[in-house]
UniProtKB/TrEMBL annotation, chain A:
It is a multi-pass membrane protein. The keyword Repeat does not apply. Pfam families: ER_lumen_recept. It comes from Ceratopteris richardii. One of its GO terms (molecular function) is ER retention sequence binding. It is found in: Endoplasmic reticulum membrane. InterPro entries: ER_ret_rcpt. Keywords: Endoplasmic reticulum, ER-Golgi transport, Membrane, Protein transport, Receptor, Transmembrane, Transmembrane helix, Transport. The chain crosses the membrane at residues 55-77, 98-115, 121-140, 152-170, 182-203. GO terms for biological process: protein retention in ER lumen; protein transport; vesicle-mediated transport. This is ER lumen protein-retaining receptor. The keyword Cell inner membrane does not apply. Belongs to the ERD2 family.
């Protein structure tokens, strides 16, 4: 495993930790899109179908369990915790995420490497992950005061796939059997590009020492 | 293996 991939995974982990910290310590999920969280849970379920059958490394297995467990605990907090669920801003979270699921499933059925259940579900998870942040980005734009933890959560999440792209370039250059990954690369590129606007305002607010606010 | 595709990333 190269440093880019590892740093990417750590960013991903950090984003989840930051979000859980906000929810657990502040007992608040204000500004967080439940729809994005539902999409991520679905992404992890579909991608990690092989969790008990396809062993790659202890690291991989543990990370898979951590991502699945954290995704479900976030959903539990936002939907069932008596204090946290009151802070969920349902009216601002209006993205029609079922359309994303449907579109990604159709695309996965049409464009994939291999037509097997496992492979199509994996491809679906790759497509869905690329766009899963959209409900969250829409919600951020509507929120006037984005708190630091929420801003950092989205920032770490965006950095994660950015680092994965460097990992792909590195692996492409150093590994002989590392090709035919274009499907992942295109999706990963789109996923990272979606954050471009957010990154711009995040860095700007950080440099000017101002509170993060996205233009409407 | 077909395409050498092994999902070793997270």
């Amino acid at each position: 495993m190269n440093i880019f991939r590892f740093a990417g995974d750590m960013m991903h982990l950090l984003s989840v930790v930051v979000l859980l910290l906000k929810i657990h310590k502040m007992k608040s999920c204000a500004g967080i899109s439940l729809k994005t969280q539902e999409l991520y849970a679905l992404v992890f379920i579909c991608r990690y179908l092989d969790i008990f059958t396809g062993f790659i490394s202890l690291y991989n297995t543990i990370m898979k369990i951590v991502f699945l467990a954290s995704a479900f605990s976030i959903l539990w907090y936002m939907r069932s915790h008596k204090v946290v669920r009151q802070t969920y801003d349902k009216d601002q979270d209006t993205f029609r995420h079922y359309f994303l699921i449907l579109a990604c499933m159709v695309l996965a059925l049409l464009v994939h490497h291999k037509f097997t259940f496992r492979e199509v579900m994996w491809t679906f998870s790759i497509y869905l992950e690329a766009v899963a942040i959209l409900p969250q980005l829409v919600m951020l734009q509507r929120t006037r005061n984005i708190d630091n933890l929420t801003g950092n959560y989205v920032f770490f999440l965006g950095t994660y796939r950015g680092l994965y792209m460097l990992n792909w370039v590195y692996r492409y250059l150093t590994e002989v059997h590392y090709h035919h990954r274009w499907l992942t690369w295109i999706s990963g590129f789109i996923q990272t590009a979606l954050y471009a606007d957010f990154f711009y305002y995040y860095v700007k607010s950080w440099r000017n020492n101002e509170k993060l606010q996205l233009p409407a | 293996r077909n395409l050498g595709e092994k999902h070793d990333e997270l």
